[in-house]
Structure formats: C-alpha cells, structure tokens
Amino acid sequence: AQERYASIRDKPAETLCGQRMTLMMNAGLMADLPSLESSGAEGVGLFRTELQFLVRSQMPKRAELSNIYARVIEAAKDKRVCFRTLDIGSDKVLPYMRAVDEPNPALGWRAVRVGIDKPGVMRMQLQAFVRAAAGRPLTVMFPFVAQREEFTLARAEMDKALERERILGHPLPERIEVGAMLETPSLAFAPDSFYDEVDFLSIGGNDLKQFFFAADRENELVRRRYDTLNVSFLTFLEQIVARCEAHKTPLSFCGEDAGRPVEAACFAAIGLRVLSMRPASIGPVKSVLRRTNLRELKAVIEEARQTGVMSVRPAVMEYLKEKL
Ligand code: PEP
Ligand code: MG
C-alpha cells in the first residue's frame, strides 16, 4: 500500500487551498522508526512507552530505558519525537506491580494519576528521557491529565529530573517542551492559565471521544455507536481549537481518527493543523488532503450543521465523492 503513495511521499501535505498540514506518525517500538522514512511522516507525534514495560517480567532499569529512548531519538535523525509518559494502571497492569481491583478501570487510577500519587516509576522514566536527550531537543507529554494541577505537579517532576541531571554534570537537553494530552473533556474547560502553562496539547481522540459520549472504547456494544463526525463532537473539537488559537498553544490530534482520511479532512477544515497517525495512514490521508479545498469543506460542514443533522458525515462524503 505504501508503494501506491510513493509519488507523494516527499511532497508536502498541502491542501488545494494552500493550507500546509503537518502529518506525524504514532510509534511505540524501535522497529517502528524506519517508517519515518518510508511513510514520509514529519516526526513522531506520539511515542507510546508502555510496550517496553509490558514485555518485561520486572521493572526495566533506567539505563535500559534511556538506551532505548536515545536510539529512538537517533533513528529519528532531526525529526521531532514526542514521548508520552507511561499510560498504565487499571486494565494494563504490569506483571511486577501490585494490581488494584477497580470497578471502572478506564475511569480509574491510571497514567499521570499513578505518576503523581506514586512518583517512583514516572521519575525514573523522566530521568531516562533527559539522559537520552543529552544535548538534543526533548519533547515529553503526560497522558490523562484532567485538571491543571495535575499538569503542574507532573511538570515539577520534569524540572526535578533536569535539576538532578545538572547536578550530576550530565549534558541537559538542548531545549525541552512539556505538554499534556487532552483526553478528558474537563481539560477543554480548564482555566486559561492551563492553556498558557502547557507548551503544547495533543488531543487523544480515542479517550476523548469515549468520555465525551460516555461510551466504552473497548465495548463492542457501544464503541461504534457515536460518530466522530457527530455535530456535538465536532463542535466540541472546534472549541478546543479556538481556545488553543486564542492562547497560541500548539495543538495536535493523535487518536486513531487522525488516520482516517474523511475524519482527517474534517479536522483540517475545522482548524487542526497537526495530525499524528499510524504510518500506513500517512499516504491515504495526505492524498485526500492534497485534493481537498478546506474552505469548501468547511462550508459543507457548516451547511449540514444548520440543517440539524446528527452527523455531518453523509454531507461530507457526498462532497468528497464528487471531488476525489
Ligand atoms: C488516545 O486516547 O486517543 C490516545 C492516542 O491514546 P491511547 O490510544 O494510547 O489511549
Ligand atoms: Mg488515551
């Protein structure tokens, strides 16, 4: 399938109306990195770090992790890699950590919540990122932040890791960006100071959508019940885009929907400029974006919304079918 898109691999993801989009890839293994070249992705917008923890029978050592992260940074050459801290707990239990029995694991003690309450593992991981970056830029984001204070606490841990590295006399990252995933609806309504405090935000659409519609992403009975192009959800995304624009907070979208061409085109039409997806989706998404006029598509979405439809998908599909 990648061959089909080889001719546009090195071309920009620029729409018919001249809007430049940035397409990044999601990764989670060293073995994913060659896809940066082959897919034409401009960087890694989401590096999930769970796998290195899940494949071991005991807690990985800091040196092991920093070696892996350093190899990832090297393999990416000059492209940006956004590392996400461990998103684990509840349903994804590490065999060497005590499991807690929770009635609703997806709403439970996971990700940054664990990192704040029991900071040992998160500290070790942050130290590993800092050690790996050594003189190069570093980008880190925290998953599942639900209120500003959680970000403030997590970022303070990052500052501690940097200070520790400085005292030890190791080279610090050349520059550092610390952001949050926006995957709980609460963050869309966070105080202005939150939008100023983060260096960037990345919408975790998989979780954001599950919490927005209160529909479990793992439950076959409901997981396809609500459309991403549902008017309520699109309007919600637009509000997030507007808040980020008002605060000049860089925003990306890294959930699975970013890799679906129709969804991706609609995200671009409502103002998202950076999308991160599985490598195989870069070609198809770029191909559609390059043949789409965002102003026209925006008008189609607007018109459909005015008529009171539940989802703009049928109208968008009809428009795209004519154009593509
Ligand atoms: C998301 O929630 O959209 C996301 C990118 O994170 P994950 O799928 O790992 O929860
Ligand atoms: Mg998520």
Automatic annotation (TrEMBL):
**What is its subcellular localisation?**
Cytoplasm
The highest taxon in the source lineage is Bacteria
Similarity section: Belongs to the PEP-utilizing enzyme family.
Q: What is the designated name of this protein?
A: phosphoenolpyruvate--protein phosphotransferase
Question: Per the UniProt entry, what species is this protein from, by scientific name?
Answer: Roseovarius phycicola
Q: What is the lineage of its organism?
A: Bacteria, Pseudomonadati, Pseudomonadota, Alphaproteobacteria, Rhodobacterales
Q: Which residues of the full protein are shown?
A: 424 to 747 of 747
